[in-house]
Specification:
Elements lengths: L27 H4 L2 H5 L3 H8 L10 H13 L9 H4 L1 H5 L21 H5 L1 E4 L7 E3 L4 E4 L11 E4 L10 H9 E3 L5 E4 H6 L12 H5 L2 E5 L6 E5 L16 H12 L4 E9 L2 E9 L16 E10 L2 E6 L18 E7 L5 E2 L7 E5 L18 E8 L4 E9 L3 H9 L5 H6 L3 E2 L5 E4 H4 L2 E3 L1
Length: 443
């Protein structure tokens, strides 16, 4: 397969009968169907079914972006996007460009169980460069897997959350490099230079995004350390999908302590100067990360005097576009694409350069190292003598201006725009009170 996506054998492989879970052996064709896994792994299957991995080739934004990309590049986009959004469909030859995904069997859509649990090797750590086993063996992180009649079971460091190597399996799809060499998603690259990739810290992608608990890995099996397969991050399902509310609660939970904030008030000409500082001590990558050209992270500040609230920055109304580059008074973090002429564009296949303003991850725990300090600050002059200043930080998974391009092209329903949520980073909110805090800082 092109770009290192290797075709799993279509030969039906029958696993020897070993006993356990009350099931007979499952052939390779059946193993491709997550429904075959649910009988023995109901909790894993339930959590996965509500995840964005399961939703990856049903996501209306992905489908719209792929349709537009295939049309405007006359098919040159090929399987560039779909090899990560529906890897089994590409590997089995069921699709070559993703335009027929909605007609494919459910078992071939999304990032399915075998798309991860049969990863045998990672080539280049971007663009879905993965190779899979072809013998019916399911790979995982259990030290001593219990024999099962359903399939062979083997431990692999690529599927073991405590092994830093496991991040490569995630990075293979969560780093994206255009054919022109432009890196447009760099979550793995960001992690690999962070404090969390150091052996003494040792926190892999799954170490954060797949919370561990003690429970049987399969029905009737012994209690093990197992991991949440909902894999909450930032992106959300915008259509009717199992567990949507659980998904959003998981995102809000994980965003709560991701970044830290500080608000300082000092005398200023005709008022007070307010400085806001944002820091990223907890995420194992930049924040925001992933499709940063589409992410919208922004600061909102409101001053209050005599019960009258005055927006200072970032007080966007529902449905209003938050743009990564304007106005100058706003603080919006994310990235911007420009084409070869320097014109800003929203579509990845048009991008020649990328300009990013992100919160870098921690790279050292040594306070004597200048790299320890990696926060960002901005200041505003607030007129008069405010009695109260409130700070909030908001995150939109995909900016409405990006969705508007897809809606205008006829590839995306306006309902997706209406469904796009804005998350409030609860742990980042601060309130300064003149009577309580005086001139100085709160954090």
């Amino acid at each position: 397969m092109p770009l290192g996506v290797h075709l799993a054998s279509r030969t039906v492989f029958l696993v020897s009968l070993l006993g356990g879970c009350g099931r007979e052996s499952i052939d390779l064709e059946a193993l491709r169907d997550p429904a075959s896994c649910a009988g023995c792994h109901p909790e894993h299957a339930r959590a996965w079914a509500g995840s964005m991995h399961a939703h990856a080739s049903d996501d209306p934004v992905f489908l719209a972006m792929n349709r537009l990309g295939q049309r405007t590049t006359s098919g040159a986009l090929g399987d560039f996007c779909v090899r990560c959004h529906a890897p089994v469909a590409v590997a089995t030859g069921a699709t070559s460009d993703g335009l027929d995904l909605e007609q494919l069997p459910r078992a071939l859509r999304g990032v399915t169980c075998i798309a991860c649990h049969q990863i045998d090797a990672v080539g280049e750590i971007h663009n879905g460069d993965l190779a899979w086993t072809d013998d019916g063996t399911m790979l995982g992180g259990l030290q001593h897997p219990v024999s099962t009649p359903a399939h062979g079971s083997t431990r692999s460091s690529l599927l073991t959350s405590v092994a830093l190597e496991s991040s490569k399996a995630c990075g293979a799809c969560h780093d994206v490099v255009l054919p022109n060499g432009l890196a447009i998603e760099q979550t793995f690259a960001e992690w690999s230079t962070s404090l969390f990739a150091h052996p003494e810290i040792g926190l892999s992608c799954a170490g954060c995004h797949m919370i561990g608990s003690d429970a049987p890995a399969a029905l009737h099996g012994p209690t093990r350390r197992v991991h949440d397969h909902a894999m909450a991050a930032v992106d959300v399902a915008l259509t009717q999908w199992p567990g949507v509310e659980d998904q959003r609660r998981g995102i809000a939970r994980d965003l709560k302590g991701t970044i830290s904030t500080k608000l300082c008030v000092a005398p200023g000409a005709g008022g007070v100067e307010v400085t806001i500082t944002l820091d990223n001590p907890q995420a194992g990558h930049a924040f925001p990360s992933g499709t940063t050209h589409a992410r919208r992270l922004w600061v909102e500040m409101v001053a209050e005097t005599g019960g009258v609230a005055t927006p200072i920055t970032g007080a966007y109304q529902a449905g209003e576009v938050v743009h990564a580059g304007a106005p100058a008074s706003a603080w919006v973090l994310g990235s911007r694409f420009r084409d070869a002429s320097g014109t800003e564009v929203q579509l990845p296949w048009l991008a020649a350069t990328i300009e990013s303003d992100l919160l870098a991850p921690s790279v050292t725990a040594d306070r004597t190292d200048p790299r320890f300090y990696h926060s960002k600050s901005r200041s505003w002059l607030v007129p008069g003598s405010p009695e109260r200043i409130r700070l909030a930080v908001h995150l939109q998974p995909i900016g409405l201006d990006v969705l508007d391009v897809l809606i205008a092209s006829g590839d995306l329903s306006p309902s997706a725009r209406d469904a796009m949520p804005t998350f409030d980073l609860e742990g980042a909110s601060l309130e300064w009170l003149a009577a309580r805090d005086g001139l100085g800082c709160v954090q």
